[in-house]
Amino acid sequence: MLLKGTADECHLVMNLSADQRCIFVKTTPDCAQEDGFVDYLRIAFCLFPFHLLPIAVFIFILWLLFLFMALGLTASKFFCPNLSAISTTLRLTHNVAGVTFLALGNGAPDVFSAMVAFSRPHTAGLAVGALFGAGIFVTTVVAGCVALVKPFTVASRPFLRDVIFYMAAVFWTFVILYKHQITLLEALDFRSDSDDENPSYPSGSIQDYESEYQPLLPYTMTTTQIFFSSLNPIDSRKWRRMPRFWKAVKMIKLPLEVLMLLTVPVVDPDKDDRNWKRPLNCLHLVTGPLVCVLTFLSGKYGLLYIEGEFPVWALTLITGLFLSAIVFCTTTNEQPPRYHFIFSLLGFLVSATWISMAASEVVSLLHTVGVIFSLSNTVLGLTLLAWGNSIGDCFSDITIARQGYPRMAISACFGGIIFNMLFGVGLGCLLQLFNHHPVLMLELEGLLGWVLAGALGLSLVLSFVLVPLQRFHLGRAYGVFLLLFYIFFLVVALLTEFGKLHIRGV
After folding, report:
1. Are 457 and 19 in contact (CB under 8 A)?
2. Is this model's pTM higher than 0.70 or not?
3. Cβ(432)–Cβ(119) below 8 Å
4. For the CA atoms of the chain, what is the radius of gyration?
5. How far apart are CA 286 and CA 301, in angstroms?
6. What integer pLDDT is reported at residue 205 of this predicted model?
7. Which residues contact 417 (CB under 8 A, 6 or more apart)?
8. What is the torsion angle, in degrees rounded to the nearest 10, for the CA atoms of residue 506, residue 185, residue 440 and residue 505?
9. Are 283 and 324 spatial neighbours (Cβ–Cβ below 8 Å)?
10. Mean pLDDT across 449-459
11. How crowded is residue 335: how many other Cβ atoms within 10 Å of its Cβ?
12. N or C: which end of the chain has fewer CB within 10 A?
């Protein structure tokens, strides 16, 4: 199978007259909707008249921002906590949990986006652009902002170890792209175990550990009160202290959070009751499997009929209701059952399904934006997709640095993206190898792909050389240098995209 980064035939739609574009996107295979629930190309070229296309683009951008918000929210508040609960149940050490479950949780948006992009030949460039682009963004912009906010001296051995392993990962990926193919053995990547000095702090989000308020007098809530209180994502005490901007963002996320609370159970080992909400957890046994069935591969399996008569979704609903009734009748509101850890596995599966669905919509939407503006998938990956998936890292790492932990922030800059690159490329290609041929052919989008790979490699080499020369002290001057390096890279990448820079024969 050949995964190309070159422009597909769907990009030719912009060369046609306005009255021909709708027919073109309906009849061209590269314009066909493969995954996802929304056909953005048909909306843009068939639903909106030509003169209203800017309105469609504006709506798409707003929807894209909401999808990025959904990815971050689902990963931080539902995916990561359940992974943490699973690692606690399995009694894993902090080190092993940090480099496996927590790394997967923090990199979930990047990894799932890469897997979805690699699943389609004409969007594979998005995966390459996003993984390499996010690497450059995090190691320059995020690391530079950390140095500007809190100049500090890094721990020499962990810093050199992270940079060396990341350079090795980039070099190996570069070799695979240079060969234009990847085999099954090469797709099985691995990540080396980190030292215990490396903090297992989640790099993708800041966990809000809210204070627990215990009533002075014993108070027992009814089942109905427990159900509705567990669906309220707003803490009234915290709400009064927060600024208006935070409240506005919270209101935008409110419907999404309620939907997640209705479908995704979360097990918290740090709480006495392990976040056991009997009525809501019983409902999760119904809604969770339904979400998995109706969203997996855009609901293709959920709409199938058993023996041509009984729908799969109805069987899932009946099974969920049966299990829910058993759990409700055999448990109490106060004490979680011994098998409560199973809900963390269910929460992991359901949240992963939500993330995968959102990632599919992001990839489809970015492909549509690329068609409308005649942009390659690689440049969309290194800009919009990389920024969207990395903005959470940026804010969280800067916050960590301001709180007095710049070493933790700089470690998070390198630790997470190593996992994202190896796991994103490895798993994305591995799925295609299992589904198609033993060798997967890869092609970059001309010169831009090599500019992207070269810039990432150069940034790492400069860090490997310049930081030791400064005796491992990262000051504000070095932070400014990193920011300027990213701006220079972005200018070169955009000039290459629009044909202003080129090499003869490339």
Report:
1. no
2. yes
3. yes
4. 24
5. 17
6. 41
7. 107, 134, 135, 138, 139, 166
8. 10
9. yes
10. 83
11. 11
12. C
